[in-house]
Write a structure and sequence with these properties.
By secondary structure, the chain is mostly helical. The protein contains two helices and no strands. Helix 1 runs antiparallel to helix 2. The longest helix is centred in the N-terminal third of the chain and has 29 residues. The radius of gyration is 15 Å and the shape is elongated. The two termini are 26 Å apart.
């Protein structure tokens, strides 16, 4: 598998993770569940932080980000 194919697959997986985390925040807000919203927001922010840490490590090791910046938001 080429690097481009691996990056495309990885981006697909990341998109799903981020989409699910954002959905959880929206659902908790829609239900008016403040504790659930806080928990879901914390999970989303943790995911974003982990992705940025991974991207920084990859950049340091390989000189380029593993995915475009707008994907890692």
């Amino acid at each position: 598998m080429s690097q481009e194919q691996m990056n495309a697959q990885y981006r697909c997986i990341l998109d799903g993770l981020r989409t699910n985390a954002e959905r959880d925040v929206r659902l908790a807000r829609a239900e008016g569940d403040r504790a659930g919203t806080a928990k879901a927001q914390a999970r989303l922010e943790t995911l974003r932080a982990a992705l940025e840490i991974y991207a920084a490590c990859h950049f340091h090791a390989h000189g380029e980000r593993p995915w475009p910046r707008e994907v890692a938001r």
